[in-house]
Design brief:
This protein has helices at 2-9, 48-51, 78-84, 92-99, 195-199, 202-212, 236-245, 257-266, 290-304, 321-327, 350-353, 367-378, 395-403, 427-437, and strands at residues 24-31, 53-58, 66-75, 112-114, 119-126, 138-141, 144-145, 164-165, 178-182, 186-188, 225-229, 249-254, 270-273, 282-284, 287-288, 311-314, 333-336, 358-361, 386-391, 410-414. With 446 residues, it is of the alpha/beta class. Helix 13 links the parallel strand 19 (386-391) and strand 20.
Length: 446
């Protein structure tokens, strides 16, 4: 592994095709025999530091259409949090079902699960039939794994019945020194970014792009008012940038003055600190507070000059969904993915049906959407929201911190990269955007 790393760091990328691939590599894994370890505990009390292990695993051989990548950096996403606490289900059920679909997929059904749905790195080996990529290519990966044997996936690959999220519903993910991906997951690494910066955007930026911009999502247009929950977080920080970049007005909802300041650094002017303003959308576990919905809606109109949101960018789920449906404008759109506060959403349907609103569900992005989202990063029009970086052996603590919302933006992980700041090959473009690239890393924003 050291010879591979030395060649990459020296810029001798043509050499990696001739170097031997190690039989084993280090990865962050779950164990199938530990899935019951948190039984009886509330979600908040389940500790990823107990379930996540850094250990050596066998290197998979790339099959037809697959690519083996030397992972320089990765990132923490909420799906790794869910995996680590075995919610809503242990991921080994996903691997088992996938393993039954084909001999090639059977390799994923193992007693351990290598996690991670982001990476930046260098192609090491290509399986049979891969023509678009060669060993030595600097790449990032999006996390959509598809089979495309069914007609439903050929208009929008997210509709493929065999669509899965790599590193969550498949094995050999990116929180490791090596990763196995399908060739149609790869995209060019943005040349002005370091390895850890390039790895930060794949999942969340693509998800936000489909959810907010794509014809498969909310179809953002110039002049729209967009309410963005968790606007300084991993997903919301990209939604905020996409709204600003597309001529819309974001109304950023955050939970602290520090997070409000991060949104202002991105260029947002309308910010609601819901903790400071004391919004409590639930009276108790079973009853929502319509009066709080009204107070929240009035605050939005106060900021916007009387306008309700054309689009509500939803991802907290249970805690906020009733309020989201209420505050959207007549004819507006509530676009939802994930449910970090709970999957069971309750809302008053009168405010949906009688006011002609729409709820649109979105999930990650197809290859084209991911490519377009990555292109915005590569052009310097959207920037990574990396706030901190940890070594591979610090992954479990980082997942714990994300589980408890003790972070801003994205948390990066150095896998093979020996230090931060490596991998930049376009210093001119970087110099043009360096303040924006680093705005989430300014002191005193945590």
């Amino acid at each position: 592994m050291q010879k591979i790393l030395d060649a990459i760091c020296a810029g001798e990328l043509d050499e990696v095709a001739h170097l031997p691939v190690p039989e084993f590599y280090r990865g962050v894994v779950l164990h199938a025999d530990e899935t019951a370890m948190f039984e009886g505990l509330a979600s908040r009390d389940k500790d990823p530091r107990r379930s996540l292990h850094l250990e050596e695993v066998a290197t998979p051989e790339p099959a037809a259409g697959e690519v083996l990548v030397a992972v320089m950096a990765s990132g923490i996403n909420h799906n790794t949090v869910w995996s680590s606490i075995f919610e809503p289900l242990p991921t080994f059920g996903f691997l088992s079902r996938y393993g039954r679909t084909s001999p090639q997929a059977a390799r994923h059904d193992l007693p351990y699960h290598v996690l991670g749905s982001d990476l930046s790195g260098v192609v090491l080996r290509c399986g049979e039939g891969v023509t678009g990529w060669q060993p030595g290519a600097e790449v990032v990966a999006h996390c959509l794994s598809v089979e495309l044997d069914h007609p439903d996936g050929h208009s929008d690959t997210m509709l493929d019945p065999e669509q899965r999220i790599w590193g969550f519903e498949t094995n050999f993910g990116g929180l490791a020194e090596l990763a196995l991906v399908k060739a149609n997951q790869l995209m060019p690494k943005p040349r002005h970014l370091s390895w850890e910066e390039a790895a930060a955007s794949g999942l969340v930026n693509s998800t936000a792009y489909r959810q907010l911009v794509s014809a498969n999502g909310a179809r953002l247009k110039q002049g729209d008012t967009v309410l963005i929950w968790g606007a300084s977080g991993g997903l919301g920080s990209y939604a905020t940038q996409l709204a600003l970049n597309g001529g819309a007005t974001p109304v950023c909802v955050v939970s602290s003055p520090q997070k409000a300041e991060v949104c202002r650094r991105m260029g947002a002017e309308l910010v609601i600190d819901r903790s400071a303003e004391g919004y409590r959308f639930w009276k108790d576990e079973h009853t929502q507070d319509v009066g709080e919905w009204r107070r929240f809606g009035a605050r939005i109109r106060e900021l916007t000059g009387g306008e309700d949101p054309d689009i509500v960018f939803e991802h907290p789920g249970r805690e906020t969904f009733g309020a989201s449906v209420y505050v959207a404008r007549r004819g507006g759109t509530i676009v939802t993915c994930a449910s970090t506060s709970g999957y069971e959403h309750t809302f008053d349907n009168r405010y949906l049906w009688m006011h002609l609103k729409r709820i649109v569900g979105t999930h990650f992005a197809n290859y084209r959407e991911a490519w377009e989202a990555n292109r915005l990063i590569a052009k310097g029009q959207v920037h990574p929201t990396l706030s901190q970086v940890v070594p591979l052996d610090g992954t479990a603590q980082a997942v714990h911190d994300v589980h408890h919302n003790l972070h801003q933006g994205k948390v990066g992980v150095l896998c093979l990269a020996p230090e931060e700041g490596l991998g930049v090959t376009d210093a001119v473009l970087r110099s043009r955007h360096e303040p924006a690239i680093n705005r989430f890393r300014t002191p005193n924003v945590s």
